[in-house]
Amino acid sequence: MENRYMVVEGPIGVGKTSLATLLAQRFNGRLILEAVEDNPFLGSFYEDRQKHAFQTQLFFLLSRFRQQQELFQQDLFNSQTLSDYLFAKDRIFACLNLDANELALYDRIFEALGTRITKPDLVIYLQARLDVLLARIRRRGREFERKIAPSYLEEVIKAYNEHFFHYEESPLLVINTSDIDFVENEEDLENLISVIRKMRKGTHHYIPVGSRRK
């Protein structure tokens, strides 16, 4: 494929890791997964967002940067690479959770690090309705995610949509996954892969009918 470095993005519970893993298996590629559960502040953050937001966000920013640096010290262009996060997504959550002073400090760090990150050849942005995301989060059963308020998740959805509405840094494929199950349904997965293979440039939207409506 022409798209050697692909990133799967989207709000909490949308299936980023599942799709990135499936694509890495299909394309015999290298898989880069975000170490979400390594953040020691995350559980406390969902209990008290205002109190724990800054340390949670800073930990994510630095750990994501370190992972990206380790990745690109390798030869990126001799193998397919799939990741379940976009480095720039960090600022989506920063804008959502930090106060003005915290965000100003965060931005100084983010801007210094962001210039040293390689941009992907393709970003796959997964969307889903709020009720679908809540059901998926409950199904996967992560302890710290049980504290996520639906109102917060709705804010996250809106922030993601706003970010990718203006996104122009690389080709973008927007996929609504509300009515498909690419993990359990082979046809849904094959349809997604067919669309992904055709992506070259610009922004494209894919709204599949999906197995759940049949």
Please describe what this structure looks like.
- The protein has 214 residues and is an alpha/beta fold.
- The protein has one domain (5-213): P-loop containing nucleotide triphosphate hydrolases (Rossmann fold), CATH 3.40.50.300.
- The chain is 49% helix and 12% strand.
- A 6-stranded parallel beta sheet has the order 2-3-1-4-5-6, sandwiched between helices.
- Strand 5 (172-176), helix 8 (186-198) and strand 6 form a beta-alpha-beta unit.
- The longest helix has 24 residues, at 49-72.
- It is globular.
- The two termini are 31 Å apart.
Keywords for this entry:
214 residues, Rossmann fold, 6 strands
What order do the helices and strands come in, and which of them pair?
Elements: E1 5-9, H1 16-26, E2 30-32, H2 42-47, H3 49-72, E3 81-83, H4 89-97, H5 100-114, E4 122-127, H6 130-140, H7 150-165, E5 172-176, H8 186-198, E6 203-206
Parallel strand pairs: 1-3, 1-4, 2-3, 4-5, 5-6
Number of strands: 6
Coarse morphology: globular
Q: Tell me the strand order in the biggest sheet.
A: 2-3-1-4-5-6
The total of helices stands at 8
Kindly give the count of domains. Answer: 1
**Mean pLDDT across every amino acid position:** 90
* C-alpha-based Rg, rounded: 17 Å
Sheet/helix structural class? alpha/beta
CATH class: Alpha Beta
Which CATH architecture would you pick? Answer: 3-Layer(aba) Sandwich
Distance between the termini: 31 Å
Report the biggest beta sheet as strand number plus sense, adding barrel if it closes.
Answer: 6 strands, parallel
Q: Fill in the CATH topology.
A: Rossmann fold
Helix content: 40-55%
Percent range for β-strand residues: 5-15%
**In terms of per-residue confidence, which ranges show pLDDT below 50 for 5 or more consecutive residues?**
none
SSE order, one letter for each helix or strand = EHEHHEHHEHHEHE
CATH superfamily grouping: P-loop containing nucleotide triphosphate hydrolases
